[in-house]
Amino acid sequence: MSYDSNNIFARILRHEVPAKIIYEDDYALAFHDINPQAPLHVLVIPKGNYISFYDFSQNASFEETKGFYGAVKNVIDQLEIHDDGFRVLTNNGVNGGQEVPHFHLHIFAGRPLGRMIQSP
Ligand code: AMP
Q: What positions does the domain HIT occupy (predicted)?
């Protein structure tokens, strides 16, 4: 599977589609999820063209990897959710339920989040 440069997050990165952006640096962009699943639901995406967590883990450089996870930490600091707690999640591929084929981390916060995975 090759990277689809017209996926919605690629278009947000190019500022072709509006988003509620809360953080941007050389490595990452963070914005509010359009369909929040918690009082606070933010997505953090790398600037490079990576399809998934696995693709990023396999192909991103050390600098991109350090930059991206550093940005995630900066977003957590900016949101001031460290003390109360939060959840970071990524969906990868079909069984993971990934809908948008640009690697993204979900950050959920704002209430106790319950069990990790719903029973089927
Ligand atoms: P996933 O299932 O992990 O691929 O999650 C994709 C997420 O992207 C979902 O939570 C959607 O609500 C969110 N989403 C889709 N389109 C947009 C958009 N234009 N702006 C912000 N979030 C979006």
A: 8-118
